[in-house]
Specification:
about 425 residues, mainly alpha, Helix Hairpins, 2 domains, 14 helices, rod-shaped
């Protein structure tokens, strides 16, 4: 297995480190959100329990109030008699019953309004005021009744025990009514706290879900960077296998005296096509990183040019080992034959389409001929320096020579060996 160039390894290591740091932060965020969600859920559960207890107590008080009302009515009936002198008391008592009924009617109306979740708050306040006025009127009438009862008692018309029972029942009823109102307020507060706690729990769960999603995204990024590292290593391994296979094939071809050229043998060697397929797969992983995690793509982007140049040099090293096609291209100023045999033409013959690394200017896709768009390296000798200088000067006179200049890259890499 050949080693990936140091620049590429450093870029991938940096991306892996940033990915690991980001994943650690995401895990801590998820743990904190999970704990907060659990605490909020417990709080909501406790608030719901307190709300239920308050509602249960309110129901019991309402039942007690009903029982006391029955006792008050029975005590009033026990105190009633048919004596002529009690007529004024009976009339006052009847009037009191009507006023009590009026109060009860208002109380029932209040309960209906409260059951509609206080959507008619203004109307409820009006009825409460009316109830207060009627209660005041009722209290005044009770005084009249008591006075009439006292007058009747003075004439021997009402038994004292019955009157006291009636008074006690009325007082107990008023006390029960007061407790009901207080408990109703407590139940409303418990319901409010329960809803607030439930809202807090739902928000905490939302934060927990977001933290979980963020962690999964960081895990996916880490796996994608590792996949990139694996794809780069796989490509260099396959290039090494292709190089060894082609060198053996070229040597065997020469020993047998076969007239086949190296570029013809390239279409017969399975490792050549396989290296191109793996190259495309590697570029697609770079493209995924570009679209999904641009920050991490920038960390490894500087290695793209080196990989592309190495791939180009590896193909030329086997396709044109004696530089015959390259020299002919230099002499003619035409790259068509070289490109047809060792560039895009070779990809076409193998029924493949070469992918290119993504950039901000465009998506990943096919590329220009294999020898274009490369910057030449420094010349390795005086001869190469003179040739490169001459070509750069000729560029201004002949646009076709712009393509020939790029052959310096492949030729110099080929002479010094493919960096692995």
């Amino acid at each position: 297995m050949k080693m990936v160039p140091a620049k590429i390894s450093r870029a991938i290591r940096r991306a892996l480190r940033y990915s690991a740091d980001a994943m650690k932060v995401a895990e801590e965020k998820k743990d904190n959100a999970t704990n907060a969600s659990a605490a909020a859920a417990d709080k909501a559960s406790e608030a719901e329990r307190q709300k239920g207890a308050a509602e249960k107590m309110l129901k019991e008080l309402e039942e007690g109030k009903d029982r006391l009302e029955k006792m008050r009515v029975e005590a009033a009936k026990a105190a009633e008699n048919d004596k002529q002198e009690q007529a004024a008391w009976r009339a006052a008592e009847k009037d009191l019953e009507q006023k009590v009924k009026a109060v009860q009617d208002e109380e029932e109306e209040i309960q209906k309004i409260q059951a509609e979740m206080r959507k008619l708050a203004d109307r409820l306040m009006d009825h409460k005021n009316a109830k207060a006025e009627k209660e005041l009127d009722k209290n005044e009438q009770e005084f009249v009744v008591q006075k009439a009862a006292a007058d009747a008692a003075a004439s021997g018309g009402i038994k004292r025990a019955a009157m006291e029972a009636q008074q006690k029942a009325a007082a107990a009823y008023e006390d029960a009514e007061k407790h009901c109102r207080e408990q109703e307020t407590r139940a409303e507060e418990a319901d409010k706290q329960s809803k607030e706690a439930q809202a807090d729990a739902e928000f905490a769960k939302h934060l927990q879900d977001e933290a979980e999603t963020d962690l999964q995204n960081k895990l996916a990024t880490s796996e994608l960077v590792k996949e990139l590292r694996t794809s780069v290593q796989a490509y260099y391994d396959e290039v090494d296998a292709m190089t060894k296979s082609m060198e053996a094939r070229i040597a065997e071809n020469a020993a047998n005296g076969s007239p086949k050229q190296a570029h013809e043998l390239m279409t017969e060697d399975e490792h050549v096509k396989q290296s191109m397929i793996i190259y495309n797969k590697m570029v697609l992983v770079f493209s995924r990183l570009f679209h999904e995690e641009k920050e991490f793509f920038e960390m490894v982007n500087e290695s793209n040019k080196e990989i592309s140049e190495n791939a180009q040099a590896a193909i030329l090293l086997q396709c044109d080992p004696t530089e015959d096609l390259e020299m002919a291209a230099r002499e003619s100023g035409n790259l068509e034959e070289l490109d047809a045999k060792c560039g895009t033409g070779l990809w076409d013959k193998l029924d493949l389409e070469r992918q290119q690394f993504p950039t901000d200017k465009g998506e990943a896709g096919t590329v220009e001929p294999v020898t274009s768009n490369s910057k030449p390296l420094e010349p390795d000798s005086g001869e190469a320096s003179n040739e490169a200088t001459s070509l750069r000067q000729d560029d201004q006179q002949n646009p076709a020579m712009l393509q020939v200049r790029d052959l310096d890259v492949a030729r110099q890499i080929r002479r010094h060996g493919f960096p692995m």
